[in-house]
Design brief:
By secondary structure, the chain is mostly helical. The protein has four helices and no strands. The radius of gyration is 30 Å and the shape is elongated. The two termini are about 55 Å apart. The model has no long low-confidence stretch (mean pLDDT about 80).
């Protein structure tokens, strides 16, 4: 195996450094172009989805009947509107049940690991 002199090692090091810099710059340029393209596409889609401006109306006060509605009734009405609109599917409305077993313990340990003063 031929031995390399100090000059060869330094030249190889500078070449590797330069090659990594070129690759990093090319990657950064690609990511910037990708982000700019996605932003332009989002603006184009967003501009098409913006409704025509509506004349400003004075704020309305809720009728007397609406002020005393039960939140469960409001949730049921919202669920019915959501189901009819077809935009998605509501699976459950209500409080989530606490998870027991090893998943809750692991989650608690993981969240506890974020405290720096332990």
């Amino acid at each position: 195996m031929p031995t390399q002199g100090l000059g060869d090692v330094i030249a190889t090091s500078f070449f590797a450094y330069g090659l990594m810099a070129v690759i990093a710059m090319a990657t950064a340029g690609f990511v910037a172009a990708l982000v700019a393209g996605l932003a332009a596409m989002g603006r184009r889609v967003g501009a098409a989805a913006v409704p025509a401006p509506v004349a400003a109306r004075p704020p309305t006060v809720a009728p007397e009947a609406a002020r005393g509605l039960d939140p469960a009734v409001v949730a049921a009405i919202a669920a019915a509107v959501q189901a009819v609109s077809g935009a998605g599917r509501i699976v459950y409305i209500g409080e989530t049940q606490p998870m027991g077993g090893w998943t809750g313990e692991v989650r608690q340990r993981h969240h506890g690991s974020h405290h720096p003063h332990q």
